[in-house]
């Protein structure tokens, strides 16, 4: 399968950190080059779909906690097709369906070097084609569409990691999922597949009603209108508490999250920072972890091995993510509109850009 010499992409405006006053923008370019000759381990991929994460906005307005590549290509989550391979590539063939790995400096669980993250400090996937290394992509589950596959690399893998890879599911297990964004919705679908009762929170009764229609097993509450979130959690778990809390808001709610856990062995997974980085609690409060034999787990997406394990699980258990895709996919030319919807927060699930029509 041939590939073109040039392709179109979206790039951020120059700068390693935006601000709310002087925010960065994204702009289309139409003359990005691809090499004529491939190195032995090179793989050229044609990108079919890209999904957005909140961090795309955080990078533009300066709230992302690390510097970014000036003028870089954004986005980290994509589903793609192999269109050319180097002479020494063994794991993939032309026509294979793949997903790039987000953190290409963290390919194995024991990697301990500085991480390169696509769409952050190295070029991302909001483009028609990309040149990657064989070791930097994984095979997509065969049961998913391009749009569904584009949600896996960051959001779904983060959710999988937050749920401890579904290695052990206690009897009557439940999980509290903060918000209705990509990670929480991926976690919800994984929970349903594994027999874990998901309890989702939102400030929108409309979103909660729509999500509860997916399964009678789904519980949820409006965190702005309930008087006591802890009592709601107890009500939905028959007083037991939850086994997992997927924390999208940041450290401010950690102590409350620990209180939501069951009495022995629960996990709070810190996956986001929507409410910032401050926490109004005393160091002694962390002893609550000891009383409950619980843990707080910082989630940096996940390793390549975890990505492959998750994809096998999705395929073997026929887990679908079609309900995750919000509304209709945006066209490649509509990337700015997709970003605007992302920033508005007026959606649930994942916003997808269909790169190839």
From TrEMBL:
One of its GO terms (molecular function) is oxidoreductase activity. It comes from the Eukaryota. Residues 23-353 form the Enoyl reductase (ER) domain. Residues 1-22 are annotated as: Disordered. This is Enoyl reductase (ER) domain-containing protein. It comes from Paraphoma chrysanthemicola.
